[in-house]
Amino acid sequence: MKKNCIVAQSGGPTAAINASLAGVIKEALSCGEFDTVYGAQNGITGILNESYINLTALIKENPNNLFLLKQSPAMYLGSCRFKLPDYSEDEAIYRQIFDAFETMNVSAFFYIGGNDSMDTVLKLSEYGEKTGSSIRILGIPKTVDNDLMATDHTPGFGSAAKYIAASMLEIAHDTYIYNIKSVTIVEIMGRDAGWLTASSALARNSYSRAPHLIYLPEAPFSKEAFLSDVKALLEKQNDVVVAVSEGIRDKDNNYISASDEKTDNFGHVQLNGAGKTLEYLVAEKLGVKVRSIELNLLQRCAEHIASQTDLDESFASGEKAVQLALKGVTASMVIMERNTPYAITYKAAPIKGIANEAKSVPREWINKEGNDVTEEMISYLLPLIQGEAKIPYENGLPVYLPVPHLIH
Amino acid sequence: MKKNCIVAQSGGPTAAINASLAGVIKEALSCGEFDTVYGAQNGITGILNESYINLTALIKENPNNLFLLKQSPAMYLGSCRFKLPDYSEDEAIYRQIFDAFETMNVSAFFYIGGNDSMDTVLKLSEYGEKTGSSIRILGIPKTVDNDLMATDHTPGFGSAAKYIAASMLEIAHDTYIYNIKSVTIVEIMGRDAGWLTASSALARNSYSRAPHLIYLPEAPFSKEAFLSDVKALLEKQNDVVVAVSEGIRDKDNNYISASDEKTDNFGHVQLNGAGKTLEYLVAEKLGVKVRSIELNLLQRCAEHIASQTDLDESFASGEKAVQLALKGVTASMVIMERNTPYAITYKAAPIKGIANEAKSVPREWINKEGNDVTEEMISYLLPLIQGEAKIPYENGLPVYLPVPHLIH
Fold first, then answer.
1. B115-130 and B91-103 are packed helices; what angle lies between their axes, rounded to 10 degrees?
2. Is B145 a known active-site residue?
3. Does A297 contact B386 at a Cβ distance shorter than 8 Å?
4. What is the ipTM of this complex?
5. Percent of chain B at pLDDT exceeding 70
6. Residue B244 placed within a domain
7. Structural domain range at position B267
8. CATH of the domain at A189
9. Residues B332 and B193 in one domain
10. pLDDT of B233-273, one tens digit each?
11. How far does A68 lie from chain B, in Å, by closest CA?
C-alpha cells in the first residue's frame, strides 16, 4: 500500500507560498510514490486538530486548480503562530503528532514557512531522530523578509520586491507633479532585515532616482544625519523620496518608531511607525510639504504583480522537497544556490543552523553614509523581480483559488 | 497660417489623466487644423510662467510616446493648486493669460482636471465671453473621486476603483489565514464622496464577502452602530474586513478622525486617520486583533493595474474636447453619457453648473443601515473596471514615459 504525505503552511503570507504548495502537490502526484497528498489546515495545529484537506482530490477534480493555486495570494491551507514546546517539557504533543502521522499512513511531512516554522521542522526532526521514526521532515522556505540562512534568497521575497519597486516608481511619478518642495517617506516591512527596503532601489531608472535616500535596520539611524541628508537634497531638487524600513534603530538599538509617542483621542499612547515619526520630524524641523506612506499588507499579498521568477522558484522549491524526501533526506530545508549567469540550483541544507537564525543585509552592501545601498545589492536583487505573473482576470478582477474554509 | 492649441493638467493625479492628454494630442495632430500642440507645465501657472512643452514634437520624434503617455501614471505636464482670483479682483492675471494665448497664436485651450480646475475653466470662459475672445476653452474631467456633476462618471475613477477592488480582494485573502478573530479596516480616499470606498464592494465574489461593512461619507457615521455591526459579524465569522472612507462624519457633520484638521489652499479640510481612529476604537471596546490599512497615494497612481475601459474613455474624452473646439464649442466640459448595454456617448455640458459643485453618492445607493452599498451601486461600478491595461515591462518593472523636467 502506498504511503501518503502531509504538507502545511505557517507564518505570514507571501504571494508565492501557494506556489510552493502547488510544487509539492504536483511532484507528489506525478512521482507515483504517494497515494494521497493531505494539507493540514492552519499549520502544525491542523495535525493536532485533525483538520485536513485532500489536495489530490482538489487537483483531480479540476487540473486548472494547480495553476490557480500557484498564483493565489496568502495561504491556501491557512496559517498558525504556534511554537512547539521543547520535547523535554511536553513530549505528549510530539507523540500526538507522530501518532497522527502513523494513523494517516504518512511517510513525509513538508512545512512551508519562515524562521519560526523552521524551528518546528527542527524540533520534529530531532524528535523523529530520537524515536527512530522513518518519516522524512522537510522545510520549504518562504518569507518576504528574505532573512533565512543558507539560501541565496527566499521564495516570496522576489514578488514583494517587485511590488515595492513598482509602487515606488509610481509614487515617484506622483510626487514629481508639483513645482514645490516636498518630502515623501515610504515605510517598508522588515523589522530586523533591510532586504525589502533595499529593493525599493530597483525603482531607479534613467530619469528618476527615487528613492533618493534608503535607510535599513542594519545601519544605525541618526535623526540629525537624516535631516541633513534631506535638507541637502532639497537644495538641489524639489522632490525627495525616502525609503525607510519599519525597523530602523538608533545607535543604541532603540527603534525610531517607538521614540516619538503621542496620545490619540482615546488617551491611548499611539506608537507611530517609523514613517510617521520621520514625517513629523521633517514637518517640525524643515517645514516643507511632507507625507508618509505605509505599504502595509499589500507588499506581501499583491499577487497581481507577482514576480514570475519568484513563483517559478517557489514552485520548484516545493517540487525539490518531494524529490529530497523520496531520496530519504530529512531534517533539512530546501535551499537555492545562485549560478552565474543567473540560474538556481536547488539543494538541501541541514535544518540545524537555519532555524532561529536570521540573515541581515551585509554592512558592505550599504553605503558608508548609511543612506543608500550599493551596486552589489542592485545586482543581487535585479534577477529576482524578472517576469510578470500571468494572472487570469474575470469581470475586471484577478481570479484566485477560493479560500477553502469559506466555501459552503 | 494654422493656429496652435494649449493643453494643461491640474489637481491631483490619476492613472488616466495622461490618457486624456494623449487623446487631445492625437486628435489635435490628426484633425489637421492645428499647427502645434503645446503643453503648459504645472497647469495654468505654466501659461503665466511661459513654461511650455512642444507635444507635437514629442510624438513626431517617436510615435510610441503616444502609447506610453496614454498609460503613464500621474501628470506628464505637472500640476498646480492655483485658484484664479475673480476677475473683478485681479483682471491683470486674465489679461496676462489671454495675451499669452494671442502671442502663442492659440485658438483653443484644454484643461484636464477636477472640481477646482473646472473653476478655472469657468472663470476663463466668462472672461473670454466678456472680452469677446474667440478662443475655445474646454474642460476635460478627471478625478479619482468621481464627484463631478453632469457626467456619468469621471476619467481616472475606474482605474482607482479597479486598484481598490483588487487590493481589497488580496487583503481579504491575507486576513483569512489565521484561526482567530480579527478586524481589518481599510481606509480609502474620498473626502466628501464615497464612490471610491463603494468600489471596494466589487471585491466580493462567490467565496469572499469582504468588505463585510462599508461606510461612506454620505451616511452619518455612529461609533456605537459601527461597534455593534462589527460585534454581530464576529459572532458569525472569524474575520471582519471594513472599508471606510477617509471622510466619514458623525450626525453633527464632524469628521471621525484622530488627527488635527489642516486646510489646503482651497480651504478643504485635509484628512487622515479615520482608519486609525476606528482601529483604536475596536481595540479598546472589542479587544480583538485589529489593524488598519491606508491605501494612500497608490489608489490614484497604480498604473500597473489600470482599467483599460478607463484609459480608453479618458483618451476618447481628450479626443472629444478637440472635436468640440473645432465645432466652435466653448465654456464647456466633456461629459460621458451611459447607454444600455454599457457604452459611452461623449457630449459637451456647459461648464456653469459643473464647476464648484460635487456629486455625492445618492442615499438610496447606500443600504438603510448605512453600512453597505446596494446592487444598483454594484451595477453602476462594474463596467468601469473592465479590461487590463497592457503595460510594457522592462527589467521586471513597468515602462512609463519619462518625467520631462527630470530629463537632462
1. 80
2. yes
3. no
4. 0.96
5. 96
6. yes
7. 157-301
8. 3.40.50.460
9. no
10. 999 999 999 999 999 999 999 999 755 444 444 444 444 58
11. 14
